[in-house]
Write a sequence for this structure.
């Protein structure tokens, strides 16, 4: 569910007409709904009610400071995967005890930064990383709380580029080796083993892979406890999918996911953490773009937009589908035409959709990509020296630019010319 609805034929973001924002900010831009962000966070929080838990928003999905502050105010923790994200979480006012550090290649500097500023736990991804963490923490006279990310060898049945829980993926340690690695961890100085971490992939539309993974985690918990480890926290990752096409069957609800967690690991008495990203931010954002040209091609018509793959890379990178809708609602029964919807970037991959059925559109019409809030703005670049797409946050009947479009001068002045040139 989201808060982008047509009212009298005009697309609104909460109580603001999207066309009003387009007129004020110019296209292309991302717009987020506060109400949707809050609703989705609360769905997860309520799904785990009754269990000692913390919902740690996976901020790589959408990491604007205003979004982080919105969620932090509800009590969200943050799942960070870099020093930059850690700095963002702290700048948004999230205390260290609510920040979890994930990611396959934490550097010494990043580890030191988190130990210095405070951290809930590190999710350790490999033995070499564990050794470095032990070294850095010991040298600082600190003790790093850790879970170890196990790779349960479960097929998440999602796009190959976002599956992370099979043995061929780079993530975590093989679950079969877990007992040996935990024993090693327990013997190292500067580390305190507190739990287990797992994250099998993103955009999962079925609960079965979660169930398979969590049952393996439950079994491992018992084994590690029998080995003498005080396993008291389970980080169960993120990954619950969202409906990218309104016409598709909706993926499982957070409440059912919560029940699954209760059923698979609830009896262990552990504190539960989850790290949802996409489900919190995905349907909370639109990418809004204007049609620059309608171009007649060989046997096809192209809609050339002012947004491109550098603003939203998901179609090019993951073959992702986004529903694309005009700001003015088409009349019921209006004729639909097939369009190839593309951006202006000099790459054939700069294609958002092929033969997409749309109402007839003309240059100057504005369209919105739905479900663009997660892995949208955060993956944007300035390829083709296109200014980084701005972001806008709506709350009720007001909106604010939360990241401004840079001017060409600002972009150019980031480069420096050596004095010998
Ligand atoms: C990306 C990621 C998440 C979030 O995944 P979503 O599919 O956005 O919910 C959670 N945990 C880890 C470790 C991740 O890498």
């Amino acid at each position: 569910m989201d808060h982008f609805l047509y009212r009298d034929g005009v697309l609104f973001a909460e109580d603001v007409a999207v066309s009003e924002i387009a007129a004020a900010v110019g296209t292309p831009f991302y717009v987020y709904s506060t109400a949707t962000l809050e609703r989705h966070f609360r769905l997860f929080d309520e799904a785990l009610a009754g269990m000692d838990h913390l919902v740690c928003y996976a901020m790589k999905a959408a990491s604007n400071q205003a979004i982080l502050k919105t969620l932090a105010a509800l009590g969200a923790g943050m799942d960070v995967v870099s020093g930059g994200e850690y700095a963002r979480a702290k700048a948004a006012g999230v205390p260290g005890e609510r920040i979890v550090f994930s990611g396959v290649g934490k550097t010494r500097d990043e580890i030191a930064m988190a130990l210095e500023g405070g951290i809930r736990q590190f999710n350790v991804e490999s033995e070499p990383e564990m050794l470095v963490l032990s070294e850095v923490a010991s040298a600082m006279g600190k003790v790093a709380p850790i879970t170890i990310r196990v790779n349960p060898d479960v097929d998440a049945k999602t796009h190959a580029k976002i599956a992370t829980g099979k043995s061929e993926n780079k993530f975590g340690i093989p679950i079969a080796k877990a007992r040996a690695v935990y024993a090693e961890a327990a013997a190292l100085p500067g580390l305190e083993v507190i739990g287990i971490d797992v994250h099998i992939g993103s955009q999962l539309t079925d609960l079965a892979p979660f169930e398979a993974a969590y049952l393996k985690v439950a079994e491992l918990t018992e084994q590690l406890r029998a080995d003498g480890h005080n396993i008291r926290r389970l980080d169960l990752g993120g990954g619950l999918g969202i409906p990218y096409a309104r016409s598709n069957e909706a993926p499982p609800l957070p409440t059912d996911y919560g029940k699954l967690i209760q059923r698979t690991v609830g009896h262990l008495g552990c504190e539960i953490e989850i790290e949802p990203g996409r489900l919190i931010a995905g349907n909370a954002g639109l990418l809004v773009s204007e049609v620059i040209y309608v171009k007649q091609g060989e046997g096809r018509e192209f809609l050339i937009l002012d947004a491109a793959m550098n603003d939203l890379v998901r179609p090019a990178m993951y073959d992702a589908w986004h529903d694309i809708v005009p700001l003015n609602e088409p009349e019921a029964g209006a004729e639909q035409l097939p369009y190839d919807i593309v951006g202006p970037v000099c790459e054939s991959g700069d294609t958002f959709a092929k033969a997409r059925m749309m109402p007839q559109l003309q240059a100057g019409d504005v369209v919105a990509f739905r479900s663009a809030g997660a892995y949208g703005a955060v993956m944007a670049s300035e390829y083709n020296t296109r200014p980084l797409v701005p972001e806008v946050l709506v709350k009720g009947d007001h909106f604010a630019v939360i990241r401004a479009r840079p001017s060409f001068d600002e972009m150019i002045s980031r480069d420096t010319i050596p004095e010998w040139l």
